[in-house]
Amino acid sequence: MYGDHSGTPEQVWSHDAYADDGDADFLALIQADGRVEPRDAMPNAYRASLVRQIAQHAHSEIIGMQPEGNWISRAPSLKRKAILMAKVQDEAGHGLYLYAAAETLGVDRSELLDKLHTGRHKYSSIFNYPTLTWADMGAIGWLVDGAAIVNQVPITRCSYGPYARAMVRICKEESFHQRQGFEILHTLSNGSPAQHAMAQDAVDRWWWPSLMMFGPPDDASPNSERSMRWGIKRFSNDELRQRFVDMTVPQAQALGLTLPDPELAYDDTTGHWRTGAIDFTELFEVIAGNGPCNAARMAHRRGAHERGQWVRDAAAAYADKHRSATATGAVA
Amino acid sequence: MSDTDIAAYALRLGDDALVLAQRMGDWIASAPQLEEDVALANIALDLLGQARALLTYAGALVLGADGGPRSEDDLTYLRDEREFVNAQLVELPDHGDFGHCIARLLVFSSWQYELYAALADSADQTLAAVAAKAVKEVDYHRDHATQWVLRLGDGTPMSRQRMQHALDAVWPHVEELFETDDLVVRLVSERVAVDPAELRTPVLAYVAAVVDRATLAVPVTTVRHSGGRRGIHTEAMGYLLAELQHLARSHPGATW
Amino acid sequence: MTEAGASAREWPLWEVFVRARRGLSHGHVGSLHAPDAAMALRNARDLYTRRQEGVSIWVVPAEAISASSPDEKDAFFDPAADKVYRHPTFYSVPDGVEHL
Q1: A291-313 pLDDT tens trace
Q2: Which ipTM score applies to this complex?
Q3: Which residue, among A59, A52, A56, A40, has the nearest Cα to A15 in the 3D structure?
Q4: What is the CATH number of the domain that holds B200?
């Protein structure tokens, strides 16, 4: 389960800023917290925003297979190898659920993939960081999936029915992803000194990027307001980020690992953990395409797609030849 | 029947499944279509499950240097190349060619299907149980490979050519699957093992029928590569094991 | 990348229905792409039942589904709203009468 960057510059809410908010029926439905379904009339900007957000979310799942897929062949035990395979497989499945949800809005998956492959669509920047050690499998599960869960649980109540339903299924299937990551780190932290150091190094590298998964601070996220009004977004970036920090700090203590923020402190008056300032210039660099793995992730994705073209063509040609012979059965 | 013999036999079947799981795992995030990523991952997970059951059984039958049983991970990560006894077919690299992946899967799953169907009646209860579970999994793998061979063979002119090349490439490694040796003879006489030679006719009949329906030709070759059951592998095996084992070996005795 | 003369069209969309267990009807679970029905069934098995979510699968070409239009929803569905006599709670049953 991977977070979209709701409200980040990767998401364009503003391109249609003058569009209407929808007709009275639509607004009444939204205000009653009802669900919009595929064939309903909806404002163009609502449709466009959803396509963009769902597609970006789907792309993130698909690109997100790579940093973890990177360690399938090297997993240090067969149990871990099986878990990792199942997890990366889930990400493919979740990408498919999300593309299917996007397609209910009248776009085609091939069109969306084409936009990903040509750089016109973004994916979550977290996947442009490298997975350098086995402990990164733990840190991704614990921090990245953890942040994604916080981001995505509210989307199960999104105003667009197919997106909300896909998210229900994804959240249900995801329940093991974060836990297995925590378990990896817990084992490493309590293992040999070298393993403990590996775990700490991974947390040091993934902590700040995972905080940035929630997008820029609210005062720099001008487009969130309308998505809130439309019931696509339920909480602000900063609210969700705070929720994640409050959840995660005690877990880090249980792991026996430190979070790389000397200013991290508990605020007695608010009951929240306060972090130091987040350096968003790095995030914007990665979004701009200058992260450590942007080029490699795209090259891998495009390569797989291009190498598979002859296979997809062959299956389509076979279907054309054999259409009449397709097996059918009575249903009941 | 000797435990050493049964362990050696379980190790062969376990290594076959393990090494192919490793190869299939490489396809996750690289398949021709997203649906296929999911399908190939399912197959890899099935094979990995078979490997774990078989290696665990082999490790329990023969004690290690410390006098205790050897775990699935000991056997996976701490054996050297010459100690792996998988058939060479499963270690062949795909080099990103889906046709090659499917050609190998068709042959191997057809072989595994006949093997496990027969092994489900083994006098060895554990092997029989593993086989009875695995035969259902492998039935699906064989079907998946069949569907793809049909589509690639009878698809476009280019796919037909590529699928034929892929079959030609794996064919010199097919006969090794049907080889019998003293170990197998001993275990067959005790109704523990299945004689690979007896699988030859049904396996090749199934594969030939699929190849024929796919408008392809069964390759004809006099080249036969062999040696996997004796620990003699292709050059690709060293790289496969280097990747599989390096992390575990870098941290001797560690728990993961 | 597409070879000359080959079909470059994308695989069509299929809607997937799964019977979760015996005794239940098939329910819509989502969609997928596949070149034909045989592969659609297999892809559906791998994608939508890998956690034992089903015992039977239907796949239907998405283009074969005819759906009622939201524009017609007043005409289609509102007339049912006042037919309360179709529901058992419409009827009063004297106290003490069972099995009704």
Answers
A1: 999 999 999 999 999 999 999 99
A2: 0.97
A3: A52
A4: 1.20.1260.10
